[in-house]
Design a protein that fits this description.
By secondary structure, the protein is mainly α. Helices cover about 70% and strands about 0% of the residues.
Length: about 280
Amino acid sequence: MVERRGWLTIFSHVSLVLCIAVLALPIYVTFVASTTTMDEIVSPPLPLIPGGQLFENYREALNRGVTQLASVPVALMMWNSLVMALSIAVGKIAISILSAYAIVYFRFPFRMLCFWTIFVTLMLPVEVRILPTFEVAADLGLLNNYAGLSVPLIASATATFLFRQFFLTVPDELVEAARTDGAGPLRFFWDILLPLSRTNIAALFVILFIFGWNQYLWPLLITTEAEMTTIVIGINQMIAPGEDQTNWPVVMATTMLAMLPPILVVVCMQRLFVKGLVETEK
């Protein structure tokens, strides 16, 4: 039984509030900077109260962008990132769940060798194999298009391993019952395994969407046209080199906009995301 003490409760709440304040302060400062004028943001001290340029700065970012990126609007960069993140998340889940299903429920030669071959690729991060991957993508004509942004990153040993481990926990009695009822492999997968994997899929989708949204190195290599720039690269390229003046309010507005899609995904799928991480629903 947990003893309830007043001072301990107060200490816990104060600690939580302080931690939240530390984590939220950079985001708040970024938001304030996105609502000010250029003169206000470069004149010390940094303002801590939102200014009056909120709609102007965000409208300029969404519609016009900055000159360093040939005035590519942020809306287009966010669309590129959204297509890339969704393609990577959905593609990884689809390929991984089918791979795990074949490894667990089908008996074929070298089945375990196939699994361990997939598993070993966990030891090879994207940065290690990025040059041969780029060479293959270039030979296939995948430069400067959405297929090039997403397809080379779709294979996932981690997701395959997680789905395999979950499928191994499904009772054999359930498989036998489905077989007795006349369910074939496709119906067993669609009507039984897929609903059981709902929370796992949701948790993986959130993680993989954020992974795809935050990609920097691969889009930097595979795209050379400004129209295919993703939002993460765009923020970096908005900062003017040398003595050129950076439009910091627009850069800060772009940064705030870049955070919105991942936050929306997490908020909308919070319940399934938490269940997928802490529970094994059968």
